[in-house]
Each structure stands twice: as C-alpha cells, then as structure tokens.
Amino acid sequence: MTGSDIAGLIAAGVFAVLVALLAIPIWKLGKVFDELRAAVREVSDGTTPLLSEVTNTVATTNDQLRKVDGITSHVSDASANISALSSLTAATVGRPLIKVAAFSAGVRSALGTRPTGKGRRSR
User: Fold this and answer.
1) How far is residue 60's CA from residue 52's CA, in Å, rounded to a whole number?
2) What distance in Å separates the CA atoms of residue 121 and residue 1, rounded to the nearest whole number?
3) CB atoms within 10 A of CB 81
4) Residues 13-60: pLDDT tens digits?
5) Which letter, b or e, does each residue of 88-103 get, where b requires 16 or more Cβ atoms within 10 Å of its Cβ?
C-alpha cells in the first residue's frame, strides 16, 4: 500500500463518518415533514366543515337582516302615519277647543264675572 492508497482510505472513512452523522438529522427532518403533512391534513379536514357552517351562518344572518329591514320600513311608515294622524287630530280638535275657550272668555268678559280664587279679586 502506498501513501495515496492510505490517504484514500482515510478520506473514505471520514466521508463515511460524515454521512453517518448527517443521516440522523436528515432522518429526523423526514419525521418532522411527516408530522407537518399530518397536521396540514388535519387542519384541512377540520376547516372544510367550519367553512360550510360559516357560510350557512352568513346566509341565515342575511335572511334575518332582510326581515329586520322590512320591519324597520314598516315601523317608519307607521310612525309617519301616526305623525300625520296626530297633526290631523290637533287641527280637528284643537281649533274648535281654542274657539270655545275664546268664546267662553268673551262671554265671561261680557257678563262681567270672573271666577274668584285665592289671591284674586272680583271687579
């Protein structure tokens, strides 16, 4: 054996040790990738039903909001009608009451009598 043969054997031995030392982390990294693949599959399997439930919830919420919008519209119409009815009642009942009060004040003034009360004097 010559010196170059011995150097080649030493280099081959060092290379074999290096491969053996690097094989362990590569093997562990392979297991990490297997776990990662399993975790991604589990998340994917859990996400699909969750997305369908969210879609159903959003659809139901939109239906309820449409109903609330209809109710709000009807309440707005009802409040406008009540306001108009209140104005009509005030115009219908208020004016005659004012006329009656003015008439009774005029009659009292014409008759010269005033109601007496505490702190009031009759003329």
Assistant:
1) 12
2) 149
3) 10
4) 999 999 999 999 999 999 999 999 999 999 988 888 899 999 999 999
5) eeeeeeeeeeeeeeee
